[in-house]
Amino acid sequence: MASGIKVTDEVVTAYAEVKEKHKFKYVVFKVSDNEKEIVVDRKVEESSWEDFQASFPSDEPRWSVYDFDYKNKEGQDRNKLILVKWCPDNVKIKAKMMHSSSSDALGKKCKGVPIQANDRDELNYNEVRDKILSTSQ
């Protein structure tokens, strides 16, 4: 928590709703307007990967926990939580620094395969799947 920004209970609850209850396909988090805590930006029940990719703002950082469906090396259906750290290159430097320094605090409360993305190309389905496959057994 190097930035001093706290992860709210609402964030932890939303994470559990994706991980344990599968109530949402993904949840998006952001720094609150007063810059004191990480809060839930939105919860999405159903979404394609393409819609998820397109949902990130082009000029603001976000985090998201996504219930990623894929086939393992044996062709079996699997799913894994990923934690996307979205920070486009054109984000203002203060917001970039706040996002970066707050990511560890969020990552401790919301576990998932970390995916860093600065543009939509870095959220390529096959590349994300390959990263998951390289970290899974």
Automatic annotation (TrEMBL):
Pfam families: Cofilin_ADF. One of its GO terms (cellular component) is actin cytoskeleton. GO terms for biological process: actin filament depolymerization. Keywords: Actin-binding. Residues 4-133 form the ADF-H domain. InterPro entries: ADF-H (IPR002108), ADF-H/Gelsolin-like_dom_sf (IPR029006), ADF/Cofilin (IPR017904). GO terms for molecular function: actin binding. The keyword Cytoplasm does not apply. The keyword Nucleotide-binding does not apply. Belongs to the actin-binding proteins ADF family. This is Cofilin-like isoform X1. It comes from Branchiostoma belcheri (Amphioxus). The lineage of its organism: Eukaryota, Metazoa, Chordata, Cephalochordata, Leptocardii.
